[in-house]
């Protein structure tokens, strides 16, 4: 069994579960590496906030904040740069699906509203995920990507 340290100590507890998991990145993530480690892969998503660092390769606006918080109840929620959102998700191996999110309707400056629209669109397209050796989370599907790191 190959073991890779994937994240800071906060995530290490989630990885201490029994078993061995091999992460095969989705086909649409060329160049991503296969990673094996002990623990429950889905549990690495849960238990803390992920800070969005990139949406569809366009980065994020300075001082804007987008977040992902995966709950053990099958819901993901957070801040979509302007509004709060919530959606249901399901994990099976490295397949992750996220339903279309419901969001509050607060208005923000046009640049934030555009970023929020891209984020929510990319979120509903998610069909797979990978956690890299550096602990970064990549969500992908339909040619769309969201990259995040633990907060």
The SSE order reads HEEEEEEEEHEEE
Strand percentage = 35-45%
DSSP summary, beta strand count: 11
Low-confidence stretches: 1-24, 33-38
What is the count of distinct domains?
Answer: 1
Q: Describe the global form.
A: globular
Q: Do you know the CATH architecture?
A: Beta Barrel
Mean pLDDT over the full residue set: 81
- Portion of residues within helices: 10-25%
Structural class: alpha+beta
Question: Major beta sheet, specifics?
Answer: 9 strands, antiparallel
Radius of gyration, whole Å: 15 Å
Give me the CATH fold name. Lipocalin
What would CATH call the class? Mainly Beta
DSSP summary: helix tally: 2
Distance between the termini: 29 Å
What does this structure look like?
It is a single chain. This protein is of the alpha+beta class. It has a single domain, classed as Lipocalin (Beta Barrel). The strands form 2 sheets. Strands 3, 4, 5, 6, 7, 8, 9, 10 and 11 form a 9-stranded antiparallel beta sheet that branches. The N terminus is likely disordered.
What topology emerges from the helices and strands here?
Layout: H1 9-15, E1 20-23, E2 35-38, E3 49-55, E4 67-70, E5 75-79, E6 84-92, E7 95-98, E8 102-103, H2 110-125, E9 128-131, E10 137-141, E11 144-150
Antiparallel strand pairs: 1-2, 3-4, 3-11, 4-5, 5-6, 6-7, 6-8, 9-10, 10-11
């Amino acid at each position: 069994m190959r073991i890779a340290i994937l994240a800071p100590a906060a995530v290490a507890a989630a990885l201490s579960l029994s078993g061995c998991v091999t992460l095969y990145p989705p086909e649409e993530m060329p160049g991503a590496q296969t990673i094996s480690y002990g623990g429950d892969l889905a549990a690495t998503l849960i238990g803390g906030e992920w800070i969005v660092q990139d949406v569809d390769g366009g980065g994020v606006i300075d001082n804007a904040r987008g977040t992902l918080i995966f709950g053990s109840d099958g819901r993901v929620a957070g801040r979509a740069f302007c509004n709060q959102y919530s959606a249901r998700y399901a994990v099976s191996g490295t397949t992750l699906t996220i339903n279309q999110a419901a969001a509050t309707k607060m208005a923000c400056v046009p640049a934030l509203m555009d970023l929020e629209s891209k984020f929510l669109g990319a979120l509903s397209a998610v069909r797979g995920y990978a956690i890299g050796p550096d602990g970064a989370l990549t969500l992908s599907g339909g040619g769309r990507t969201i990259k995040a790191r633990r907060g």
